[in-house]
Design a protein that fits this description.
The protein contains 23 helices and 30 strands. The strands form eight sheets. The chain has a seven-stranded mixed β-sheet, with helices on one face. Strands 24-26-25-30-23-27 form a six-stranded mixed β-sheet. A five-stranded parallel β-sheet has the order 10-9-8-12-13, sandwiched between helices. A hairpin with a 5-residue loop joins strand 2 and strand 3. The radius of gyration is 25 Å and the shape is globular. About 4% of the residues have low confidence. The structure holds ligand MGD (2 copies), iron/sulfur cluster and molybdenum atom. The site of one ligand MGD has 37 residues, from helix 16, strand 17 and strand 23.
């Protein structure tokens, strides 16, 4: 057997660390350092290092399962596929196409996400498709689109971070959620730059900060407005930039001026001197950045909140300029690409809008269907899950475990159980797959090739390194087989490169234009940043040579061909667009090229604490587990490091409760009750408790969370809901 190392990328988060995989003679796979990939330069976190454990047939599915007499029972592929196609088609005939729903995931490769969106619209004819990315960065995406006319998580590569003057990191615990990226912040400080971290908890990331602001959960909007108020009051605005490059300043300014520092201090708990210090650190250097993650975004006002942080960048001239800007740290492995190519309720490939007639015509032509046959926009993720068992009678689920990860999870679990039919494609028997009528075992990262788009907007080739075990098939094969059984013989290839070739055409001319990217290029270069249009017919792409004007207005001409990695990768052919590492330097992607201020004002969280539920619960992650834990809870080393849920609380709260370290504590919200051991620490605000959401069962954090949705992004309020704490008598251990 071939034992050479294959350069590829991690299956988990959006950093998409490079790694080498080598199959060992005993059937295991060895992960070794891949130093040529510039983003992580060989460094990996524990999850990436242990990822091959999930390839083992000890923990994964290797046979289709069909529910027979109430029990999931091994079955042949034909039996399982026939069952799915039969049920989907009879439910569609009885209740109409929208009675069949599809739920995807931001971990799926671009090829899978694209095919899933096409499958829903072309084969099933349903409008009811959305995905877990709605729970992830949708608020930042909505705010970015409003402000800049385009949403790409980071509009600059990570390598710019150490060179700026100040980074404000809002609600990101990078040290645990993307450990190799911490290096960029360390280098920033080594270079004399400063780091401000905004987090209700003094996290491992906050410990690195020059200034840590610890607002009450759900008050970032007030905080950002208070900072903008001070920027204006202290005369630190960049009037020329505001005049030349933005619109809407008057209204945004008026809204911010209503947020006096003392008022903001009362709302957030961040003192006026701290606010002033933050403004000084942010405004004094020549360049600065604001980066948000799930903290400020997973709120029922996440879009306005991110809008307020963008306002701060715009008012100070810190967007669309070298080493300055606003960025969102996308989360899942393909969180960026997964939101561009059509598994979102309102979207067509290339980040096109499903409601745009020109977009419908373009994509329908690529798909060989009539534009009118494409359904309109459907429900958002939580609304879709909430409709299961009522309007939506059948669901095809690929790449998510909502029974653990969706808000108000006990209700979602009930809705899933109320379905007439559930089919799940997964690599393991997740908690949601356990409820399915048919489970299909699929191939995963190291066993298949595909592309992902990292948090930098860098499209990457994740190469196959080993053969899949017998019994499993790829998601692309599943969709091909189901399409054929549902009467669509063509248009669902199983070869990822063939899918990518079609995706290129479907995305051509759209905001997320991949048409100039090929597998061959990706194999040669260390990723290509979109937009990357194809060369015009019969001539070289404008801008490709570095001396002519870029084809994309926002392309970074200063970088020249090939972007930051051109030297390392040997450069690109002269008739090839170099890709766009840095956006907006010349103009924003709006019609008039100007960025738009958001005229936003603070409002409370959907559920403020009261006498009955006096404490705020916020939720998030720990370094050793990933998401719903479906994959990482199957890895011994990770379980040893993070064996189960816990409730992080301040000593004052613990004392009032009479709870000691490790004692079980019940956390009760209007949605339900969860129990987990106390972890007592002064690193959290005394009015707030924190739970990670990686576990099912008694300690499931999402039993408690509030599905109050942001009106624009439809993001649920994972980061703030009202709870009360109750002491639980520890179970007497048997004598
Ligand atoms: N180990 C690990 N890494 C991961 C993942 C994982 O599950 N495990 N998931 C990946 C994915 S999909 C994502 S989206 C990213 C998420 O990456 P992060 O956004 O870094 O992760 P979270 O822990 O959800 O939230 C970050 C911080 O927000 C803080 N926070 C809570 N409420 C508020 C608030 O109201 N305001 C502010 N400013 N902060 C608040 C929390 O205390 C927490 O420290 O991580 C990716 N990487
Ligand atoms: N309380 C609370 N809840 C949260 C959050 C929070 O901060 N707090 N964060 C939210 C965020 S940001 C996110 S992204 C979601 C994530 O939550 P989920 O959507 O549940 O994400 P995962 O646990 O990654 O689930 C992915 C599933 O797909 C499977 N899988 C992996 N690769 C493939 C593949 O190639 N094909 C197929 N078919 N299956 C595959 C995995 O085994 C796993 O079962 O959770 C959200 N929920
Ligand atoms: S930081 Fe993210 S991409 Fe890198 S090894 Fe860890 S999980 Fe994988
Ligand atoms: Mo996420």
């Amino acid at each position: 057997m071939e034992t050479s190392a294959t350069p590829t990328h991690c299956p988990y988060c959006a950093l998409q660390c490079g790694m080498n995989l080598t199959p060992a003679p005993d059937g295991t796979v060895e992960v070794t350092e891949r130093a040529d990939f510039p983003v992580n330069r060989g460094a990996l976190c524990g999850k990436g290092r242990t990822a091959p454990a999930v390839l083992s047939s000890r923990v994964r599915l290797t046979s289709p399962l069909v529910r027979t007499d109430g029990v999931l029972t091994p079955a042949s592929w034909d039996e399982a596929l026939d069952r799915i196609a039969g049920r989907l088609s009879s439910i569609r005939s009885a209740h109409g196409p929208d009675a069949v729903g599809v739920f995807g995931g931001g971990g799926l490769t671009n090829e899978k996400a694209y095919t899933l969106g096409k499958f829903a619209r072309v084969v099933l004819g349903t409008s009811q498709i959305d995905y877990n990315g709605r729970f992830c960065m949708s608020s930042a995406a909505a705010a970015g689109t409003k402000a800049f006319g385009l949403d790409r998580g980071l509009p600059f590569p990570l390598e710019d971070i150490p060179k700026t003057g100040c980074v404000v990191l809002v609600g990101s615990n990078l040290a645990e959620t993307m450990p190799p990226a911490l290096r960029y912040l360390t280098e920033l400080k080594d270079n004399g730059g400063t780091l401000i971290v905004v987090d209700p908890r003094r996290t491992r990331t906050a410990e690195q900060a020059d200034l840590h602001l610890a607002p009450r959960p759900g008050t970032d909007l007030a905080l950002a407005l208070g900072l903008l108020h001070l920027v204006v009051a202290e005369g630190r605005t960049d009037e020329e930039y505001i005049r030349e490059r933005t619109t809407g300043w008057e209204d945004a300014r008026a809204a911010a001026m209503a947020h006096w520092p003392e008022y903001v201090e009362r709302i957030t708990g961040v003192s006026v001197p701290e606010l002033r210090e933050a403004v000084r650190l942010f405004c004094e250097p020549e360049a600065a950045m604001v980066l948000t993650a799930r903290g400020p975004e997973q709120q029922s006002k996440g879009t306005d909140t991110v809008g307020a942080w963008i306002n701060l960048c715009l008012a100070t001239g810190r967007a669309g300029r070298p080493l300055s800007g606003y960025g969102c740290l996308t989360g899942q492995g393909n969180g960026q690409g997964g939101r561009e190519h059509g598994q979102k309720a309102d979207q067509l490939p290339g980040y096109r809008k499903l409601t745009d007639p020109a977009a419908r015509r373009h994509v329908a032509e690529v798909w060989g269907v009539e534009p009118d046959s494409l359904p309109g926009p459907g429900r958002s993720a939580y609304e879709l899950l909430d409709a299961l068992g009522t309007d939506i009678r059948a669901l095809l689920l690929m790449g998510s475990n909502p029974v653990v990860s969706a808000p108000r999870a006990a209700h979602v679990e009930e809705r899933v159980k109320a379905l007439d039919f559930l089919a799940v494609c997964d690599v393991v028997l997740s908690e949601t797959a356990e409820l399915a009528d048919v489970v299909l075992p699929v191939t995963q990262w190291a066993e298949e090739t595909g592309t992902t788009t990292s948090l930098e907007g860098r499209v990457l080739l994740r190469r196959q390194a080993i053969s899949p075990p017998t019994g499993v098939r790829s998601d692309l094969e599943v969709m091909h087989e189901l399409a054929a059984r549902l009467g669509v013989e063509k248009g669902f290839p199983t070869d990822p490169e063939e899918v990518f070739e079609e995706l290129r055409r479907a995305s051509a001319g759209g905001p997320a234009d991949y048409s100039g990217i090929t597998y061959r290029r990706l194999a040669r270069e260390n990723g290509v940043f979109w937009p990357c249009p194809a060369p015009a017919e019969g001539g070289p792409a404008a801008g490709s040579a570095g001396e002519s004007a870029p084809a994309v207005p926002s392309a970074d001409a200063a970088l020249g061909a090939g972007g930051p990695d051109a030297a390392a990768s040997g450069g690109t052919a002269p008739d090839v667009h170099p890709g766009t590492p840095r956006l907006f330097l010349d103009r924003f992607a709006t019609e008039d090229g100007r960025a738009r201020f958001a005229p936003v004002s603070h409002r409370a969280v959907a559920e403020e604490p009261d006498a009955e539920y006096p404490v705020l619960l916020t939720t998030g992650r720990v370094v050793a587990q990933y998401q719903s834990g479906a994959q990482t809870r199957r890895v011994d080393e990770l379980n040893a490091a993070a064996p189960g849920p816990f409730v992080e609380l301040h000593p004052r709260l613990a004392e009032r409760l009479g709870a000691a370290e490790g004692d079980p504590v019940a956390v009760v919200s209007r949605r339900g009750r969860a129990v987990a051991p106390a972890r007592i620490t002064t690193a959290i605000r005394p009015d707030t408790v924190f739970m990670p959401f990686h576990w099912p069962g008694e300690g499931r954090a999402n039993t408690l969370t509030n599905p109050a949705l942001d009106p624009t992004s439809r993001m649920p309020e994972f980061k703030a809901c009202a709870v009360r704490l109750e002491a639980v008598q520890p179970q007497a251990s048997p004598a």
